Amino acid sequence: MRQDPERRYPKLSEAAFSYPAIDNHAHPLLREEHRDRFPFEGLVSEAQGDALIQDAIHTVACKRATAQIRRLLNLDERASWDDLKLARASSNYVGLCKMCFEPARIQCILIDDGLGGSDDFAENYTWHDQFTNSPTRRIVRVEVVAEGILKDIFQLNLTAKAALNAFTASLTKSLKESAEDSNVVGFKSIVCYRTGLNVAIVSCTASLESSLVDLFKRYKEEGRLRLAHKALNDLVVRIAVEVASEHDIPVQFHTGLGDNDITLSLSSPAEMQPLIKAYPKTKFVLLHSSYPYTREAGYLTAVYSNVYLDFSLIFPLVSGAGQRSIIQQVLELSPTNKILWSSDGHWWPESFYLGSYQARQGMYEVLKTMVDGEELSEADAVTIVQNALFHNSNRVYGLNLPSP
């Protein structure tokens, strides 16, 4: 990685570009035989369909990512996005992964392996250990667990009341078993995608039972099950945060930026305030900088001791100038012992490289400006970087990794 050419702040430059990192939120890489299963444009955009294939490559973020990957692969500076795709497709896969991970300086990855397609096309989470110095750990996606339990329950001839009781008991039992697994360090909820972050603190029993009946009907008609009934989704979240509180593990929540499956207005973490207040012993990790609701997320981290802010996904989906602005917004109000870096890497090894490189570059540039303005000393800036990259996640997830 390119360090500060001016060497004005050598300690800050060294910390930003070389300090080992804990990647607190990522997904598995594709297996080699499926390396081209999904459009590579998904590296730089959350769009789908024509918006992904036709439009994503014309963003400033894509042009920046193209130049950075071009340098990583030692391609000619005139190489296009299509040239880049051809070069990576013909390269040795494990070699490509190593080429991306070595400069990323990722010591440990926390993998959510519940992303759709992971079971069919992606590597097991332990496979990633070959690229890091510390073993990969799991984040359990609670909606996936809930859907698996519902499929089993729907095979039984139960009344709605009995099915609800069986579902609640089975989900609680399953999540407790996961929380007690030494390889699991947290839960994740995608309720933002399904019904929004305005999670109700209580749900009417009648609504829960009628939702189960409707879900069962749809499952029988369509042959697929997708948990997207608000009463049931809210119940799943409440069970997860209760179990997490009992076992002192964090719950990650997708917030903000996502594909067109979300309702953007319900993706603001401000919607979570009643839930956060109701479960003060649960550690809430707001993912993806909550962009474009970063300031709302910063407020929550500042006023609630149990809220933490992950800054990811904006690397590489947002332009460099946008990334610096978002990092500045994170630092406007968030206590710096509560910000956590992640790559949100998934499918393609380049996502881990860009997620690390661009975040390190952005932190350096923002903090350097603060040091220039005498808002921080260089030592303060170094501590912020080291905490954001490593120490905060090490503490929040109870990893107990030795300090670099």
Task: Tell me about this structure.
The chain is built from 17 helices and eight strands. The chain is an alpha/beta fold and 404 residues long. It has a domain of 279 residues: TIM Barrel (Alpha-Beta Barrel). It has an eight-stranded parallel sheet. Strand 2, helix 6 and strand 3 form a beta-alpha-beta unit. The relative contact order is 0.16. This is Amidohydrolase-related domain-containing protein. InterPro entries: Amidohydro-rel (IPR006680), Metal_Hydrolase (IPR032466). One of its GO terms (molecular function) is hydrolase activity.
Element order, helices and strands? Answer: HEHHHHEHEHHEHHHEHEHEHHEHH
User: What do we call the CATH homologous superfamily of one domain?
Assistant: Metal-dependent hydrolases
What about the largest sheet? 8 strands, parallel
How many β-strands, per DSSP?
A: 8
From the 3D coordinates, which CATH architecture of one domain would you assign? Alpha-Beta Barrel
User: What is the radius of gyration?
Assistant: 21 Å
Termini separation: 19 Å
DSSP helix count?
17
Helix-strand category = alpha/beta
Mean pLDDT: 96
InterPro entries: Amidohydro-rel, Metal_Hydrolase
Protein name: Amidohydrolase-related domain-containing protein
GO molecular function: hydrolase activity
